[in-house]
């Protein structure tokens, strides 16, 4: 259960918290795909409901770096203010056909 960068208690807290909040869908980056098997195992062992999971491709900034809160990346509201449309965001996350084209708004 314990990953190289997350304690086992983190995985336990995530699945219990999701169950208590009635989470039905989890959408997150592909970089978190490996944690999903640990979460599903815990959900099964604890008799908790398993949400549906969707792992989107990572959204990169103009420098090719992964956008994340921990890296103080440009928030979605700022992207929208800079002209990125909802369709641009969906494309960048892999929910729509085509390639992401809004990285210029990050420059």
What are the defining features of this structure?
107 residues, mainly alpha, two-stranded parallel ribbon, 4 helices, 9% strand, disordered C terminus
The N- to C-terminal Cα distance equals 39 Å
Report the mean per-residue pLDDT as an integer: 81
Record field, number of beta strands: 2
Total of DSSP H or I helical runs spanning 4+ residues: 4
- State the major sheet: 2 strands, parallel
Q: What are the secondary-structure elements, in order, as H or E? A: HEHEHH
Strand content: 5-15%
What strand line-up does the widest sheet have?
Answer: 1-2
The structural class is mainly alpha
Radius of gyration, Cα only, in angstroms? 16 Å
Shape: elongated
Low-pLDDT segments, ≥5 res? 99-107
Helix content: 25-40%
Task: Characterize the structure shown.
The chain has 107 residues and is mostly helical. It is 39% helix and 9% strand. The longest helix is centred in the first third of the chain and has 14 residues. It is elongated. The C terminus is likely disordered.
Task: Summarize the structure in short.
39% of the residues lie in helices and 9% in strands. With 107 residues, it is mostly helical.
Give me the secondary-structure topology.
Blueprint: H1 8-21, E1 25-29, H2 33-46, E2 52-56, H3 76-81, H4 86-93
Parallel strand pairs: 1-2
Helix pairs in contact: 1-2
